């Protein structure tokens, strides 16, 4: 049997089956109903789920609340560190007097009171800048270079050691104050974001 004969037989069979069978039109109706049902089910499912925008907002809200908690913990830590440093500063400050010439200086200096410490008969003036940046030592009216100041630290000069201790304490306090200010702003920022949502 040739291909043309097979094709002719198939056409004849299909022609006869269309007249006698209602299967094809019924199948089209069921197929149409199934498609409509699937579209409706998809639409209903999408109505119940949050949209991507809402989902992104929810994720952002969670991230902001986590960051707020982290910033609040950091702020509490910095404040506790500052509170721990204050007694050290309070114990050191009576050994110094504060001097500033407001006409010419932006920063003042904590100058050690020589009567409070033994300076081994040397005429020294030991001072710390009020922001903790500089430790200056003057001997007989001349500023000593950094190497000589380090030598005095090594030799155990009590005035220089106390001034260095005050310098480190002041630096730490200033750094903690900066961190507290920055972290407080971050806490406020995240609180505002969470209130908006």
Summarize it.
With 197 residues, this protein is an alpha+beta fold. Helices cover 68% and strands 11% of the residues. Helix 3 packs antiparallel against helix 5.
Considering the chains and any ligands shown, give keywords for the structure.
197 residues; five-stranded antiparallel beta sheet; 5 helices; 68% helix
Describe this structure in words.
The protein has helices spanning 3-20, 23-48, 52-92, 146-155, 158-196, and strands at residues 96-99, 109-112, 124-129, 135-139, 142-143. It is of the alpha+beta class and 197 residues long. A 5-stranded antiparallel β-sheet has the order 1-2-3-4-5, covered by helices on one side. Helix 3 runs antiparallel to helix 5.
